[in-house]
Amino acid sequence: MQLSDIGELSLLKTIRRRFGKKSKGIIVGIGDDAAVIKPQGKNTLITTDMMVEGIHFDISLITPYQLGFKLVSVNVSDIYAMGGTPQYLLLDIAMNKNTEESFVARFFDGLRDSMRIYDVSLIGGDISSSKKDMVVSASLIGYAEKPVKRSGARPGDKIYVTGNLGDSACGLEVLKKAVPIKNSPSLTLPPRGGGMGRGDNSELQIIISKLSKLCLTWNTVKPLLKRHLMPIARNPKDFVKHATAMIDLSDGLFIDLSRLCDESRVGARIYIKHIPVSGQMKKASAELKTDPVKLATSGGEDYELLFTAPPHPPIPPLLRGGVGGVKITCIGEITKKGRVAVDKHGKESAFKAEGYQHYGIQR
Amino acid sequence: MQLSDIGELSLLKTIRRRFGKKSKGIIVGIGDDAAVIKPQGKNTLITTDMMVEGIHFDISLITPYQLGFKLVSVNVSDIYAMGGTPQYLLLDIAMNKNTEESFVARFFDGLRDSMRIYDVSLIGGDISSSKKDMVVSASLIGYAEKPVKRSGARPGDKIYVTGNLGDSACGLEVLKKAVPIKNSPSLTLPPRGGGMGRGDNSELQIIISKLSKLCLTWNTVKPLLKRHLMPIARNPKDFVKHATAMIDLSDGLFIDLSRLCDESRVGARIYIKHIPVSGQMKKASAELKTDPVKLATSGGEDYELLFTAPPHPPIPPLLRGGVGGVKITCIGEITKKGRVAVDKHGKESAFKAEGYQHYGIQR
User: Fold this and answer.
1) CATH classification of the domain holding B109
2) How many structural domains comprise chain A?
3) CB pairs under 8 A between A and B
4) Predicted ipTM > 0.95
5) At what angle do helices A167-177 and A218-229 cross, to 10 degrees?
6) How does A157-194 read in b/e, with b if 16+ C-beta sit within 10 Å?
7) Secondary-structure breakdown of chain B: helix, strand, coil percentages, each rounded to the nearest 5
8) d(CA B122, CA A239)
9) Which of B8, B74, B328, B347 has its CA at a distance of 20 to 30 angstroms from the CA of residue A293?
């Protein structure tokens, strides 16, 4: 069954049945000209992020479930980066009419599971079609009593990041460099059933089972693939009161830190040896002959938070976010001007706003 | 100069320079992870509408200025259809990297002029790229003290529409059936300068000058093209207090009225002879050998409002909307059940939810 056998109205009915349950604050949900919500908190936050086939994702390297899951996470990451609480999602989808119904159903499964993690409700959107490439876009509304902007960093502030950097970019390299071969057993897969526990493992296996053998174990690639295909956004609620400025790392550390510096009119000094990277990323990048520092500084799609805070009190290294604990690492400090990276030998050099940019310019 | 020569960061800077001026209620505008606004009124409204190249528009039949203009109007129409006031816009664009800078500049000119008409501010969005087809999408936030839903119609209510129906669909037929011929003078163009007054005339001429001669005058096709390419959304503020239910006509009278009936769990009786159609539409549809009734009932993209109101007091036929006066016509009444169209001979027949549906099903 393809979308052309179902039609827009019937798809809309299915979505309403699955997502139409009203939750707190929703006056009018899916199915009217606009959604109506009760504003909450002193400030309303709104963000939007679009994912375009062939640009943001390759449908042979991500499952529909993962695509739905990730779309929610990347938008939540923006609301978290303002110190906000996400609440309501609007979804725009434009899919080819030959898209299989099962693809759409799994996309919505991923969307639903991700929304549950963040306690977000679907309140509306727009169903469209596309001639060829698929486009999915979401707008997410939230609130914050005291939003944290990019512009609040002051010289002397410490620079912190959550989690590890470069895992997602390395996961993408694993996917891209491993050539799909039919019937080829890939990596060392964990035994089915035993010890997996989480349902998302099977989603990761769907992708990895399409790939040829790499000299890497499942335990090495799994966290990298997971960070790339099904990232969990970092909830800053336990450190947000200390943050003077914050941004989420979507295009790469150097470019996103440069953005924060631009807005705050300050400089930054980063210590490369302090940038947190995972053992798995180091192992996989060696196998893939990729520079782990480059992945960690300009790889993009980390969806970790970078924030600045005064040196006192120091931020404890491990805090509990909304979803599990998250590591916090101090990687440098805010200066009056300049953008300096200090390498492991203590040598200083200027870093540029390098990372992902649309329209093919890497600066 | 193409987008690939400019890059995303530079495009973003241009957008910020043009649209970054803060207006009332905007705490954080373009350039942070999320926009921050002060909630206004008792209810926040939000809607989103996507326009996909090859599906919603053909780039040879619409100018970039018109595309930007229309994107705002179609979203405003949804906020108006809830009885709301539009305020803040978020824009998602995914354009091919070979897109000319001048195309993008004109798109933003159209966006700006349309936003001015409705007093809407750009507060954020997402710049992306696409492999081939362009996708533009907007999310619009507004507020309403008392939103008008689709579900409030009651048997005995009268059914009203604003403006004329079918002009937009007929305008599209003019564009589609007129074959583009190089150097062919098209239609009877008005003299340059004299008597045109409004800047948008030149935009309509850009499109029509690409088309071959039709046996129609400029005065006939102009309002049709304008309604299709640069629709103005109808502000219901002068009749909203009477409305029990409302919807904007985007996919066609029959399908959109059916949606309102579904939500209100009522039926409807429509008198074909009372459906307001323009003289220009009748003339052009005769020349194009197209059924004017079909255009008016299932053509779509009218962006007129359909609303229901108790029979007393009757709605005066001409009201001043936010932008010029707008005609109001009673076209039928809400019944307990059934969907009935009465033709000019008094013959009754059931109407179906016919109109535009994505994924190729016309029901």
Assistant:
1) 3.30.1330.10
2) 3
3) 259
4) no
5) 110
6) bbbbbbbbbbbbbbbbbbbeebeeeeeeebbeeeeeee
7) 35, 25, 40
8) 31
9) B8
pLDDT at position B10? 84
Rounded to a whole number of angstroms, the distance from the CA of A355 to the nearest CA of chain B is 11
Measured between beta carbons, the chain B residues lying within 8 angstroms of A78 are 33-34
Q: Count of CB atoms within 10 A of residue B59's CB? A: 14
Q: The tokens of A215 are what?
A: 């000299």
Cα(A41)–Cα(A144) distance, integer angstroms: 6
Instruction: Give Rg (Cα) of chain B.
Output: 21
**DSSP secondary structure letter of residue B92:** E
Cβ distance B133 to A131 less than 8 Å, yes or no, reads: yes
pTM of the complete model: 0.90
> What are the C-alpha distances in Å from A350 to residues A31, A255, A307?
52, 13, 20
Assess whether A267 and A131 both reside in one domain. no
Cα separation, A162 vs A169, in Å, equals 16
Asked if residue B200 and residue B158 are part of one domain, the reply reads yes
Please identify, among B144, B179, B205, the residue that sits at the C-terminal boundary of a domain: B144
User: Which residues of chain B lie closer than 8 angstroms to A53, CB-CB?
Assistant: 131
Is the alpha carbon torsion for A171, A172, A178, A181 positive or negative? positive
| DSSP H or E run through B266 | none
Taking the Cβ of residue B4 and every Cβ of chain A, the question of whether any pair is shorter than 8 Å is answered with: yes
Residues A81 and A121 in one domain: yes
- Contacts of residue B176, Cβ cutoff 8 Å, sequence gap at least 6: B61
CB B117 within 8 A of CB B232: yes
Q: Are residues B203 and B333 in the same domain?
A: yes
Measured CA to CA, the distance from residue B59 to residue B43 in angstroms comes to 37
Is the Cβ of A54 closer than 8 Å to some Cβ of chain B?
A: yes
User: Which residues constitute the domain of residue B237?
Assistant: 148-363
CATH number at residue A254: 3.90.650.10
Distance between CA atoms of residues A94 and B94, nearest Å: 13
Q: Is the Cβ of A6 closer than 8 Å to some Cβ of chain B? A: yes
Q: Residue written as tokens 């512009």?
A: A151
pLDDT per residue as tens digits for the range B93-152: 999 888 888 999 999 999 999 999 999 999 999 988 898 899 999 999 999 999 999 999
Q: Are residues B159 and B135 in the same domain?
A: no
